[in-house]
Amino acid sequence: MFGTTWIDGPIAIAIGVLFVAFFLLPSLIAFNRDADHRWLVLVINLAFGASVIGWLIALYLATRPPKTSPVPRAA
C-alpha cells in the first residue's frame, strides 16, 4: 500500500532530531547560560518535560536572570 523510498529514512531522522532538540531546549539554554540550577532544569526537563507545564517550568528556570550578590561600593 505505502511504498518506502530512500528519502523516508533521512526525513524521519531529521524530524526526530528536531523533536529531541526542541524537547531539550530548556536544558540546552540552561547549560549554555551557565544557569544557577542547570542540573535541576535537566532533571525537571527529563522527568516532566512531556507535559507542557513541566516543560514551561524548566524553560522558566533556564531563562530567569541569575542571582547576584550585592557588591559593596568603594568609598
Give a description of the structure.
- It is a single chain.
- The chain is mainly alpha-helical and about 80 residues long.
- The protein contains four helices and no strands.
- The chain has helices spanning about 10-25, 25-35, 40-50, 50-65.
- The longest helix is centred in the N-terminal third of the chain and has 16 residues, at about 10-25.
- It is elongated.
- The N and C termini lie far apart (about 80 Å).
Compact summary:
By secondary structure, the protein is an all-alpha fold.
The shape, in one word, is: elongated
The major sheet is characterized as: none
Task: Supply the helix-strand structural class.
Answer: mainly alpha
Distance between the termini: 81 Å
Share of helix, binned: 55-70%
Strand content: under 5%
Query: H/E series, N to C?
Result: HHHH
The stretches of 5 or more residues where confidence is low (pLDDT under 50) are none
Q: How large, in whole angstroms, is the Cα Rg?
A: 19 Å
| Arithmetic mean pLDDT | 87
Number of strands: 0
